[in-house]
TrEMBL record:
It comes from Aphanomyces euteiches. Residues 32-113 form the Alcohol dehydrogenase-like N-terminal domain. SUPFAM superfamilies: GroES-like, NAD(P)-binding Rossmann-fold domains. Keywords: NADP. This is Alcohol dehydrogenase-like N-terminal domain-containing protein. Pfam families: ADH_N (PF08240). Gene3D superfamilies: Medium-chain alcohol dehydrogenases, catalytic domain, NAD(P)-binding Rossmann-like Domain. InterPro entries: ADH-like_N, GroES-like_sf, NAD(P)-bd_dom_sf, Zinc-ADH_QOR/CCCR. The keyword NADP applies.
Length: 214
């Protein structure tokens, strides 16, 4: 299969820093699924991993975020079937998603929403996973039955912030305050479900006090 990777960490202006490669299709084991990559997204971890990959077997193929179609199943797979459209943020071990195929543990994978295209789903993976790790329906810091909580989301119109607003409104009873500076961003953040929108270009504590949030 075709892939993009490197044999050693080099400055990005070196012609060998990223190479077009031909490598074997990964063999899958246990709960791994083999996916055919449709779209990838560039993850901020990748440039760091390219410069400081640690111990690895060359060539190293980068890539965390992808939207794909399940091509084959390991013997322990129970969550997916061949042909499923999926998206994920993979791990740092093994070959990454900058290739035609990738082996991924099914526990890192989710079905792609039918409302999202492959490019949209690939770009959605990083922000959504980090939010889901931080927002839980049973998180006592957010959703104590006897205490009404308020959550301030900085940069509510950004990737992480916009998803956090929706998760908090869906999974908790918290009052959600988000920041935005442009008029169109403020309108969009409110449409996502923020109870209040404040301007992060102005005095935030003063604005919070004005709406009764300590």
């Amino acid at each position: 299969m075709r892939a993009v990777g490197f044999h050693e960490p080099l400055p990005i202006d070196n012609p060998s820093s990223l190479l077009d490669l031909v490598v074997d299709v990964p063999t899958i084991f246990g709960r791994e699924i083999l996916v055919e990559i449709k779209t990838i997204a560039v993850n901020p971890f990748e440039y760091k991993l390219r410069l400081h990959p640690g111990k690895f077997t060359a060539p190293k193929i980068l890539g965390f975020d992808a939207a794909s179609v399940v091509a084959a199943l390991g013997p322990g797979v129970s969550l997916f079937k061949v042909g499923d459209e999926v998206y994920y943020m993979g791990g740092a071990t093994g070959h990454g998603s900058n290739a035609e195929y990738q082996a991924v543990d099914e526990r890192l994978v989710a079905l792609k929403p039918t409302s999202l295209s492959f490019p949209e789903a690939a770009g959605f993976a990083y922000d959504s996973i980090f939010n889901r790790l931080g927002v839980s329906k049973n998180d006592p810091a957010v959703n104590k039955p006897a205490t009404k909580k308020s959550v301030l989301i900085l940069n509510g119109a950004g990737g992480v912030g916009s998803i956090a607003i929706q998760l908090l409104k869906e999974l908790t009873d918290a009052t959600v305050v988000a920041t935005a500076s442009r008029p169109q961003s403020s309108v969009w953040v409110a449409q996502l479900g923020a109870d209040y929108v404040v301007n992060h270009g102005e005095d935030i504590p003063q604005q919070l006090a004005a709406i009764g949030i300590p």
